[in-house]
Structures are given as C-alpha cells and as structure tokens.
# Entry
Amino acid sequence: MEIQTIKRLEEEAIKKNSTDFTRLGFALFFMIGVLTFSFLSNGGIPNNMFLAIAALIGAYMAMNIGANDVANNVGPAVGSKAMTMTMAITIAAIFEASGALIAGGEVVKTIKKGIIDISAFGGNSDPFIWAMMAALLAAALWLNFATMMKAPVSTTHSIVGGVMGAGIAAAGFSIVSWSTMGKIAASWIISPVLGGLIAAAFLYAIKKSIIHKEDKVQAARIWVPVFVSIMSWAFVTYITLKGLKKIWPQVVDILNFLPLISIEVTKKPTFTTALIMGGITAVSIYFLVKTKLSSKIQTIENSKESVNILFTIPLIFAAALLSFAHGANDVANAIGPLAAINDAVVNGGISSKASIPLWVMGVGALGIALGLGLYGPKLIQTVGSEITELDQIRAFSIAMAASITVIIASQLGLPVSSTHIAIGGVFGVGFLREYMHKNSASDTIKDDKEIIKDEKILRSAYKSELTTLEKRENKSKEEYERIVELYKLIAAEGKLIKTTKKHIKKAKKVEYVKRDAVKKIIAAWLITVPAAAMLAGVLFYMIRGIML
# Structure
C-alpha cells in the first residue's frame, strides 16, 4: 500500500515538473522571439542591442501583468462558477489583447504621471535608458514574486515604485515628485475602501430587494432588469471614458452617421457624453432583460440558487468589459518604460511623452494573454475562492464596484488602483456577510445566554438539594435514589451549559473572510512601491556598472 502511494506521488511530481517546464518553455520562446524581432527590425540603429534587451524585459513584464493583474477581472466570475477557468482565461486573453491593440495608449507619459522630473538627466539619454530598464525589470520581478506568493498587487504601483527607485539612484531624491507619490500612497486606502463599500452596498440592495423576499421569483422579475441596466450604464460609461480615448474621433464619426444622433467631435469623450451613452444603453438593456425574463421566469424555482443563475450572463459580460478596459488602460502604462527606451534609442534624446509603437503594444497584448494562460490560474483561484466564498450575486456586486469606483474616482481626481478596487470589493462582500450573520445571530445568542442563566439557577438548586440530602443520617431508599438522580441532573445541566457556551462562541467567531489572506494581501500592497523602488535602485547601479 505504501509503495503504491509513493509511486503515485512520484507520478504526480513528474507530471507537475513536466507542466512547469512546458510553461517555462512557452514563456522563454516568446521572450526570445521578442528579442530577435526587436534586434532584427532595428538593426541600423545605435544601441539596438540595448533596445532588444529592453524589449525582452518588456515581454517578461507583460507576462507578469497577465499572470497577476488580470486575475482581478475574472477571478470573482470563476470563483462564483459563472465561468470555468478555461473560459475565463480565453475571454480575458481576447479582450485584454483587444483593448491594448484597439484602444490602448495613443500617447502616454513615459514617466508615469510625473513621478520623476526628466530634466534632472540633463538631456543625457544613457542614464535615462538605464533607469527605465531598471524600473521595468524591477516591476516585472516584483510582480513575478507576488504571483508566486499568490498575492494580487497593483501593476501600476509596481511600475511607479520602479521608476521612482531608478530615478533616485540616477539623480537623487530631488528628482521625485513627492506630492504625486503622496496621492499614490492615498490610493492604498481610497481604492479598497471605495470598492468594498460599493460592492457591499450592491450586495445588500440585492439581498434586501430579492433574496430576503418570500416570493423571490416575483422580486427577481422586478429588480434583476434594474440591476443589470445599472451595470450596463456603469460599464458603457466606464468603457467610453477609459477604453475609447484613442479611437474616440472615429467612434464619433460612426455615431454621427446614425439618424437622430449628433455628437460634437472632441479629442476624447467627455463625462457627460459617456453618461448619455451609458444611459441610452441602460434603457435598452432594461427592456431587453425584462422581456427575456418574462418568458423565462415561469420555469424558475423560488430559491436563492435560481436567482443566482440570472446574474451569470451579465457577470460574463462584466468580466469581458473589465478585461477590455484594463487592456486599453493599464497595459500602456505598464509598458511605458519600454516605449520611453524605444523613443530614446531611436531618436537619441529624452522626451516627456512618447507614442507607443505598434510592436511595443503587440508585445504588451500578446505577453499579457500568454502570461494569463500560463500562470494566471493561481491568482484567479486566490481572488475567486481563497479570500471569501463567492456566488454570482456577490461576484456581480464586485464587478459593479470595479466600474463605478473608477468612474467616481476619475471625476473627483482621486488616484485609484483597479487591483485594489477589485480586491476591496471581495473584502466588502465578505465582511458584509459576516456583519449580517452576526446581526441575525444576535437574537439567538441572547436566547442562549438566557438559557445558560436559567440552567445555572436550576443546577444551583439541584446542588443545594444534594448537599442537604447528603448531610442527612439514616437516609431512606428513596433519598439515595434521589441523590443518584440529582448527580445525573447536575451533570446533564453542566453538559447543556457547556454546549450552549460553545454554540455562542461559534456564532461569534464565524468568519466569512479569511484573515490570513487579508493580512498577506494588505502587506503586499504596502510594500509594493518601496520593494520595487529598492530593487530598481539596485538594478540601476548594476546596469550602470556593466555599461561604464
């Protein structure tokens, strides 16, 4: 029996090692392919080998984004079983790549949001290129480590820390815009708190309006179209603001061809325009869902599980749209240093802005898709099931929080992280479940305490009677029998009191959010910027030492 067990363990180990080597092989093949393409396509440019190495690091960074950051978009949907892991990876890969290539990064600030002052380099492109390469590699290594530790962290914060650390190593602390860093530090609190509050609010609203109703089917007929239309409004507004900036003039031209529609041509969509487009879509979706639901509602059972199923398709759309917006937004920012290096090498100078070439966007898009497919499942599982238990309604609430929080924050000028918002949403629904459980259990706990009080009085009476009987001399047979009975009654009362106390303790200690996971994730958030910064500083000195 033991030999068979050892043999089975050996087979599993061999199978796991084989899978790990296959993943590593695909990753290395992609990175070497990017290196070769960059070297051959820029053959006539001085420092083209340096650019090729930077492209390889950019490919490595993109794969780490796919392995870590994308999990936040599809993790809740997988955890709620609205999608299988394979379906989630396929949808996320397609929409992340589409967002990056179609709507991503027309022009980005290569020095992320003014974190460092490029004038401190004095127009010298060499230390600037070394700093950007150190920042890119540091961010990629930190994301890789975080993924190994199953900690979802912010890609944006990783690259921010990398740029800051490399900048300090290259030109001193004065190069850093500390006001910008202060805003980023504020997002560590703002993002998860806003995401958690909005997700909890939606979950509470759904529970009160549908789940806690006696006739759940009738309540679902009324409220599901409302919630889905709100989701449609939020996501269309979100996608318009965040995902269509690059192609907005072309979108306006297409819309203006339609009858009864006239939109002023602007460089990027305004908040009002985005709201109107979201509102029109929401009204259409409301009537569509209401019509579909009216024909389907007759076959639905009056249970929470049946109501949950109604949120499955909206949740799949939410995961796809979140992935598209993430591809359009965060990918360009994450590969900004590669675009900066490309611009500095090709043009021989430093620019505060640089357009991202198509091949660089391609590296980001393909790298994210590949990283997600090869190493994404680990973080998807963490986000979807290892923090708190999710169903479709809870996952829907998290998706709603992700879109609405970004809209609110962008209009208020608050810095937020999509990763922190999504994880904050997971925390929010978990802690709301704990709060509601403890509220519903409070009456039971109160009754249990009354039971303990009564049982203690009864046990005390039994003990008093027992003491009196035991002191008597020349006891009758009936008295001996009563003494035996009292011992049994006292033991039974003691057992009941002990059981009731355990019940109270258990009711008080119910935890729907795994505290160890919360501590690990928050710790990873807090050290992301300083860890990436210190790593980037060390790498900058290493690169400079090699080059000089």
The chain is about 80% helix and 0% strand.
